[in-house]
């Protein structure tokens, strides 16, 4: 009877060890240190957004202007592709103390494509 009990206990421990090896523990990402936004100036936010945009390889050749007022970042200028406009907003929002992003960036050629491409009707 003791051998059966010891065998069952050993089997349980071995199965637990195998199960634990197959399921790695979830590691939590360390959260960045909290920033005191009451001491952060618009100029610091502006510099942070500009640095973030300059450090993004797909945006580095685009002409994007940044203005910050009261933590609200306004992006103007032009980009070559539509997805660059969204990426610029995303990168700006990642900067600490940004309250809101007002993206006024235009996509090069998008206005021409909409007004210059009229579809011909099949009856013409």
Protein architecture, described:
This protein has helices spanning 2-22, 42-54, 82-93, 110-116, and strands at residues 63-69, 72-79, 100-103, 106-107. It is an alpha/beta fold. The protein has a domain at 39-110: Histidine-containing Protein, Chain: A (2-Layer Sandwich). Strands 1, 2, 3 and 4 form a four-stranded mixed β-sheet that branches. α3 links the parallel β2 (72-79) and β3. α2 (42-54) crosses α3. The longest helix is centred in the first third of the chain and has 21 residues, at 2-22. The chain is elongated and about 80 Å long.
Short descriptors:
4 strands; elongated; alpha/beta; Histidine-containing Protein, Chain: A; 124 residues; 4-stranded mixed sheet
Topology summary:
Layout: H1 2-22, H2 42-54, E1 63-69, E2 72-79, H3 82-93, E3 100-103, E4 106-107, H4 110-116
Parallel strand pairs: 2-3, 2-4
Antiparallel strand pairs: 1-2
Largest sheet features: 4 strands, mixed
Helix content: 40-55%
Order of helices and strands: HHEEHEEH
Count of helical segments? Answer: 4
CATH topology of the domain at 39-110: Histidine-containing Protein, Chain: A
Q: Note the quaternary state here.
A: single chain
What is the molecular shape?
Answer: elongated
Highest CATH level, the class of the domain at 39-110: Alpha Beta
CATH architecture verdict of the domain at 39-110:
2-Layer Sandwich
Task: Tell me what portion of residues adopts beta-strand conformation.
Answer: 15-25%
**How far from one another are the termini?**
95 Å
List low-confidence stretches: 115-121
| DSSP E strands, number | 4
- What is the mean predicted local confidence, pLDDT? 80
Radius of gyration, Cα only, in angstroms?
A: 28 Å
Class by helix and strand content?
alpha/beta
